[in-house]
Specification:
Shape: globular
Order of helices and strands: HHEHEHEEHHEEHEEEHEE
Largest sheet: 5 strands, antiparallel
Helix content: 25-40%
Distance between the termini: 21 Å
Strand order of the largest sheet: 3-4-7-8-9
Low-confidence stretches: 19-26, 129-163
């Protein structure tokens, strides 16, 4: 489960990063057609065999800051439905995470389709992590032409006024992606992203390749034996995610 949550986090980070540099004409984007219930959440958590003290402490912001710990291992040999995974990720993030309304669909052709919306908290997180780019799109420059950029340790950063502008533009905007997630070894995966859009804006191939690279790099650093991972099989089939191997027996998040 943590693997999938991390995958979503990295996708949304670089999707917004690139989209900000392209345009703010986000518009209304495509949404995955998935509806989940509390029963789906309970079923997905039961199948994972992971004990979680409070799933909301495992929102993407906490995971990105490594504000969590794992212990033990559990043997897994099961299928996870689109509804179950969507329920787990949404429940973790809808209240206070940087994304919400997460929907994940496992297709019968082995592809993965996902959509989610960006919250205003997400832009604040980008600023804190110094991910917001220093080169502003012309629309922001025109609107804030008298705002000076402050120089930080990693180069020019955005002032609070411009960050507020971006926050208003990004809030509640959709991200949509399709691709493949496959096993590469016992503790590594491969990811191929075929389409990535923010609102109605398709991101260019260069941006998609960067997302792929960063996603694989970060996930493969996380799914270590020390964290309780051992992947024997990982495959999207029969409209579900099949996982055989081990997951952490317990994941504990901490308050931000």
């Amino acid at each position: 489960m943590k693997l999938l949550i991390k995958f979503l986090f990295i996708v949304v980070i670089f999707a917004l990063f690139t989209a900000i540099g392209i345009s703010f004409a986000f518009g209304i984007g495509k949404e995955v057609d998935i509806t989940w219930t509390q029963e789906d959440f309970n079923s997905g958590l039961s199948k994972s065999k992971v004990t979680i003290d409070d799933i909301q402490k495992l929102n993407l912001e906490n995971l990105a800051r490594n504000n969590f710990s794992t212990s033990g291992t559990s043997e897994i040999d099961d299928f996870f439905t689109s509804e179950e995974i969507s329920a787990l990720v949404s429940t973790a993030n809808d209240k206070s995470g940087p994304i919400r309304d997460v929907k994940i669909s496992f297709k019968d052709d082995g592809k993965v389709e996902t959509s989610f919306k960006l919250s205003d908290n997400f832009v604040d997180f980008l600023k804190e992590q110094k991910i917001i780019p220093s080169n502003l799109p012309w629309e922001v420059e025109a609107a804030e032409e008298n705002v000076e950029l402050a120089e930080g340790s990693s180069g020019a950063t955005l002032t609070d006024m411009v960050v507020d502008y971006i926050t208003n533009k990004a809030n509640n905007k959709p991200v949509y992606a399709t691709g493949e997630l496959t096993r590469a070894s016992d503790n590594s995966v491969d990811i191929k992203i075929e389409q990535l859009t923010v609102g109605r804006i398709p991101l260019p191939q260069e941006a998609i390749e960067r997302v792929e690279y960063e996603t694989v790099r970060v996930i493969n650093a996380i799914i270590s034996p020390e964290n309780g991972f051992h992947i024997e099989e990982l495959e999207v089939r029969e409209n579900a995610l099949f996982y055989k191997g081990t997951l952490p027996a317990e994941i504990e998040g901490t308050e931000l």
